[in-house]
Amino acid sequence: MHPNEELLNTFYKSFKDHNPKEMTACYGKNITFADPAFGHIKGDRVRAMWHMLIERGGDDLTIKYEDIQADDYTGSAKWVATYYFGPNRRKVVNHVVGTFYFQNGKILQHTDHFNLWKWSRQALGVKGLLLGWSDYMKLKIQQESSKKLSLYLQKMRTFEHTQL
Hints:
With about 160 residues, the chain is an alpha+beta fold.
């Protein structure tokens, strides 16, 4: 098995095991990430995103992954996340294809591809069904995700300072 395939296996096994610290250790320092819900984010925001998603998913979050492929520079994997979203706890089953670029034995770039309309219909109900296909709704979802991530980061940093 190629070392970058092993790296992706570690990444997804850690995700499945709800271990964001081990998961994000697979990333390079200057990681960049993109997906339809968060847009483009970098560095600590990427690492915090996984911590937040795993924390919010709790015991209901299940991850399945397959078709991990990698060479010296690029890789990909298919994965499915099942969880409950928002205050109405709507069940979401999100089918994702992750693509990766590697450098020095770490993930340098990570992009997750999924159908935002399918996701929004499950997560947001009627509003997602009617508007989930639109650029307007995509922007709203990204703005809300960014806001939640910023609040989570602020909470993490406050917690770190109180632990000193």
